[in-house]
Amino acid sequence: MKIAKVINNNVISVIDPNNKELVVMGRGIAFQKRPGDLVDESKIEKIFKLDNKDVSEKFKTLLYDVPMEYMDISEQIISYAKEKLGKKLNDSIYVSLTDHITFAIERNQKGLTISNPLLWEIKRIYSDEYEIGLKALKMIEEALGISLPEDESGFIAMHIVNAELNEEMPNVVNMTRLIQDILNIVKYHFKIELDEESLNYFRFLTHLKFFAQRLYTETTHKSGDDFLYEMVKEKQKEAFACVEKIRDFIKKTHNHELTKEEMAYLTIHIERVVNRS
């Protein structure tokens, strides 16, 4: 392999046999090297293949200034997240998470802390990602000797959710707030606390995540007939009354009209989640 571009002493880019650019990391791999020189393969520690050209360019720009240790720990966190979740994450997380960790460490060293206003919601709505965020803090402390506050686990979780859903971060923040608002409407309507350990709660939460994503990407489910809607309206009246409150709230706050199919499925999920038998 030949060097295509020297990014810094520890990072280069190369072109693979399929004419794809790869980002290659290794301590001193580019020391006194120039484009066209052969790569010292014994120094290769990490190879990144980013399919999105725009993300790849941002990644390389970021690496000009980011210490290799920060990039390395970020990559370890991403690999851990992929393994735990069993999901593919959007390549953008290599840029967003590395950038976030870099600034989080810089803030910490300056004695500056930023509270996460959505930490409570993140713990409950994205519990798997939050646990990964906690593990990430331990990984950072073990690798770099830097102890970051719990709020950062929530921020890291949000970057993971962002990469899962392939959404812009503001959308993920808004989706999280919307999900919590809907959960609050259900709790206040029925005057109960929901069993967050139950399978029905997990199913309801999963439904709300996709529902919120559709709302913010302006895609809706359209029903071919009204049979299911009319059936749940008649048979699950209290849950349907709760959904009417949700419908009115979403209309008022998001100017979005719920379809009959959306209302029907929300009713079914709410009926299940409030039924403790």
Would you give an account of this structure?
There is one protein chain. The protein has 277 residues and is α+β, with helices and mostly antiparallel strands. It has 3 domains: 1-49, CAT RNA-binding domain (Transcription Regulation, Sacy, Chain A, Roll), CATH 2.30.24.10; 52-165, PTS-regulatory domain, PRD; 182-274, PRD domain (PTS-regulatory domain, PRD). It has 11 helices and 4 strands. The chain has helices spanning 53-63, 68-85, 93-109, 119-125, 127-144, 151-165, 169-190, 199-216, 227-235, 237-254, 260-274, and strands spanning 3-8, 11-15, 21-25, 46-48.
Short description:
By secondary structure, the protein is an alpha+beta fold. The protein contains eleven helices and four strands, in the order ββββααααααααααα.
